[in-house]
Amino acid sequence: MIITKTSPTGSENLIKEISERCGVSCAFSKLLVTRGITSAAEAEKFIRPDKKYLHDAYLFGKMSEAVERIKQAKDNDETVVIYGDYDADGISATTIAYRGLRDFGINAYAVVPERENGYGLTEAVLERVLEEYCPDLIITVDCGISAYNEIEELKDLGVDVIVTDHHEIPEKIPDCTVINCKLNDGYPFDGLCGAGVAYKLIHALIGEQADKYLDLVAVATIADSMPLTDENRILVSEGLKLIKSGRCSKIIRAIAESGGAKESGASSIAYTVAPRVNAAGRMGDAYSALVAFTSDDNFEIKMLAEKLNSYNLARQTECDELYKSAKQKMKSKSPTARVIVLGDKNWKSGIIGIVAAKLMEEYSKPTILFSEKDGVFHGSARSFGEINIFKALTAVQDVLEGFGGHAQAAGVTVAQENFDAFEKRINDYVSENYGAESLRKDIEVDGIVTGKFGIELAREIEMLEPCGTGNKRPVFALNINEAYATPIKYGSPHVSFSTPYIDLMFFNGYDSLAALNSANLKTIVFEPRISVYNGRETLKGFVKLFTTVTDDSESIRNSLFGNQLSSAEEADGYEAITTKQAEEMLEKAKKEVYGTLFVVNNPDTLKRIKGGEGFEREFIKSSCKGNVNTLCFGVSSADFSEYDKVVFLDKPLYKPIINTKAYVNNELIGFDCEGVKIDRDALIAEYLKLKKISGGFSSLKDACEKSGEENEKQIALAIKVFEELGLITAKNGRYFIEAGKKCDLNSSVILNRIKKYNT
Fold it and tell me: What is the pTM of this model?
């Protein structure tokens, strides 16, 4: 469902005040207000982020305690070890603490585990640290908040620990100095990443000298998908300034060059630098990333940047293979499951999180993938919609070996003997605690465009950067009928089209051409962007998605009629059901949420059958993305294996090939041919009208207008029959009647199907 963001009631004065104080349009001011801005001063801070607005590091309840302990370590020449994590946030946080302590005068050591060691303070890595460094003080970064037992053991050995972390607070926190933005101990912002918390510690130690590490904070914040609001917006903005100016860390510059980054915006960092840092840990060599970030040797940095790039390429290949393997395993799972739980001993632990996120988006349900080692399953979870995966894991923790993370992503460990029980328990928990509304992902737009989209507003939108999690770039919607979309060049998968409001580009939109160019009312969701070429600005909208309005209308009826005329092999294996049985299936599907696709071919059916409300709706579904229970107006042959069953609520003209259980309600008519004549004389009359069109026609609507035929269904039938019989040919995107060619109307499969339809 597409939802339009609205500003609070009575905010007109605030919008005007922001416009006047900040020198921006009221349209842009409204965008700020709908994003939660409540004052002109707040708007000023938001669109002009500045370090002067950063929160005082000493607002952390234990910051003074941590600083005093670190000063003691310096004064006593103690051995200090920084213990981090293997991902981009952990590597960045470790680097900030390592370099910052050296700036402070402490020659600290830096350690990060490999993924095979497990997350956080693991026994094996701690043993190595104790043996190799004999530390007096360990400072954790981006980990440690869940390591109560491990830290107690360290304390027994005489090792002090300072925990700096940003993960969710467990029931029992370590009995030591803890700095965590989620602790509720006085710090006003809980959205920092691990590197952000580490920066705060170093800033408390050395003041503004720590600002030279804001490029690392920016990379980590983006990589860890932290909200780009409040303090993060400032930290990332300042960090990107360092990167753009070339004053960033040598390794970031080297990785960006190796990865072919052309821009230094948040999205570019997200797609170039961050994945390459993460790739080292995913491929089992986080140590190389740490060395790359902590090295000052230009040659070593360049070589390691190339190494990280090669790791990323290898990671992409392995992800593709793991994805194929997971898809194969999905075939044995119930389509009605609320949570996807899959495991395999051959899967690499470093990449299961990436594939879990991909499957989560594809199936619109929480996904947990596991790798197995020595009888223990190590998993990575990604949530969907409003489901809090951390709470779900907490609810079933009695069958877990361990877990930790956030509401939307988490790590989890399960013993082999508890794996099946875990899968059942977490599915039961989600079923019992989250209804269908929690699993629906509505699409929010910032406005419905009804007039020319101005380039001035597009320029102002650039002031919202850096954009990302928590501060998405604005998207807008517009309504059109035919798009008249065409490929940007021959053979291209990308299409473009013009509207009265803005010119649009749709990447990989070729497969949607038929739906785009149909006469039905459509809502197009797009993101406005300004491009500059040879000093000239050009405004274009980039299509994110589109939906076809599925309310009863003449255009919908005509499209459904035409869709059923498409040639398709008549399939067997359908089970006949009654209207009452169809209604029972509709009600059951509302509770199950997943697994059933309902198809209606005649809008009148929804007036004659109960229970059709409340479902996601689509128009002539040609491919299955996920298996959320959906009501589809019309359908074409496709892969329906993700569904448990496909139910036709009315009898279609033909039954497409469906590779899953299929049912047809034969009591209701799906092919509405009222007002359409199928006799020879009527079709010959249409043939003569089409034959008179000079230069052919480009679409059904074009044929109606040029032939003078007002009955769109009648001419649609004629065109389909004449195409089938070879009387119409296509050339350069236009259709022409083949004059002088003879044929037998009685040989038309379409006509014979219609004649037998009611028998």
Answer: 0.80
